[in-house]
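Teaching assistant here, posting this on the class forum so everyone can see the example we discussed in section. The complex has four components, and the goal was to see what a joint structure prediction looks like when all of them are supplied at once.
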Amino acid sequence: MAVSKAEIERRMERLAQTCRGGRLKLTHQRMEVFRELAGAEDHPDAETIYQNVRRRVPAISRDTVYRTLATLEEQGLVHKAEILSGRGRYDANMEHHHHFICTECGRVHDFYSRTLDDLPIPRSVASFGRVESAQVQLRGICANCAKGKR
Amino acid sequence: MAVSKAEIERRMERLAQTCRGGRLKLTHQRMEVFRELAGAEDHPDAETIYQNVRRRVPAISRDTVYRTLATLEEQGLVHKAEILSGRGRYDANMEHHHHFICTECGRVHDFYSRTLDDLPIPRSVASFGRVESAQVQLRGICANCAKGKR
DNA sequence: TCTCTAAACAAGAATGATTCCTATTCAGGA
DNA sequence: TCCTGAATAGGAATCATTCTTGTTTAGAGA
């Protein structure tokens, strides 16, 4: 079940609109990086995108791919799945808990909830595989950072 | 609200038991790395742990901290909060969705659920800050990897 | 208590992802 | 068509993490 041609076109059009709206240039590289994602369903990483786009734009650099992805994310055109900047965070609290992550300072707060511990997993997930753990991730601005911003 | 002395002792005892149980040595370094986590509530990263432990064990190396954290995680004594191996994964699908992550191959599958889109956030979270998004993360073994394992 | 050996360690090199730097190119408004 | 700031290429630099090699040591057994 690939992304339909029509949906890809719609997404490309949204890119064009967003660029016109902001003061962003609609460059060849930007279009090709986004096109790669517009048709993908497998959450590729930056390197994969780079390798694929390179077939069409041989001179493109890794840096451009990274920069473009960051720009697209800022513009709300793509979504980056990741917790933090890649640094693992550890704790010795083994009780089942969930996380509130401040997108500003990266601080993580634990919280507990019986209701959230026992989430209703949609039946469709079963086809992906066997679920071993479920966790809720909340993102937002922590009280501390919100204060500092004023 | 620091971790109580009693709870720290309980955790240290669990470490000792686990080491005796497996064929793990109860080394000075291992104890100090774990002690650091047993008393922490702020999900420190490896570097922070290294810097703190170094005050007590000046000769400890970063590698030992990383290795020890991995061992403790394997033994179920600590918990590592992180999505993937640090590589960001992108997609152009901006509809609100949740993720099933295969812990074996790292593949990510999207799924949708009205119920999960509107989770009951515990009141206590409000004191941490303003929540901007909520997402459910399921982890498990995908059908493909489960097949390959046999 | 002493000895022995696999497990664990220290130090620093290596790796892999990502970002920065600098000179060059180019999209799009005038 | 011309100009200018935004965007790019290429490669160096950075940051977290892992690997390699030689050394130390916990704890089992004599």
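For the discussion questions: Chain A has a mean pLDDT of 87. The beta strands of chain A are 79-81, 89-91, 98-102, 108-111, 129-142. Think about how each of these relates to the inputs above.
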